[in-house]
Amino acid sequence: MLSPQLFHKILGVAFSLLLYCAQGKPAVISPPPGFRNLSEDQIDERFMLGTYSYHLHFYLDVPLCSIFMLCKLSAIFYNLMWMITASGGKIFATSEKKADFHTTLTKCKEAGGSIATPRNPDENDAILYFVKTFNTYAYLGIKECLIPSRFQFLGSTQLSYTNWHLNEPSGKGEEECVEMYTDGTWNDKSCNKNRLIVCQF
């Protein structure tokens, strides 16, 4: 499970590697004075890193085999200008762009994630942060199954957590997707509306 603190550290590594990756150069960062050098075949290497978004410094063990993965991560966040929150082992992100449900699925997949799917109150609150920040609604990774007014997670998994708005769902087979309101509750909705793209990683 990736903690928010660990994610911030990893993101710091990713941003520090961005310039090297963009120029097609090998990603090499010298450890600070006093740290011993480790060969490339060893498990990790200690770096002093600064995360641009938080202006903090961390000591972090970074597996050298993760360099290319971190470059990919940095490119995603740099190019799409993602805004992020975290809950438990999940990272939630949005670029503030809007799209219909199927386009949202595609965009999240292209970014290496999937559509945001809250499975507990904390994850629901993490998504709600974006919804309230941008004062708009967001699609969730939940759809109506073959039985009208019965919903499930994508992948046909039964809902283990719900937060329906009063008297919802009410579409009775005509509203197959689910959106989050600005109070964090859910509503069934047609899938062709433009809603905030929120992905999870």
From TrEMBL:
Keywords, ordered alphabetically: Disulfide bond, Lectin, Secreted, Signal
Keyword match Protein biosynthesis: no
BP terms from Gene Ontology: ossification
Gene3D superfamilies: Mannose-Binding Protein A, subunit A
Signal peptide: 1-24
Source organism (scientific name): Circaetus pectoralis (black-chested snake-eagle)
GO molecular function, one term: carbohydrate binding
PROSITE patterns given in the database record: C_TYPE_LECTIN_1, C_TYPE_LECTIN_2
Keyword Cytoplasm among record annotations: no
C-type lectin domain residues: 87-200
Protein name: SFTPA protein
Alphabetical list of SUPFAM superfamilies matching this protein: C-type lectin-like
GO cellular component, one term: extracellular space
Location(s) in or outside the cell: Secreted
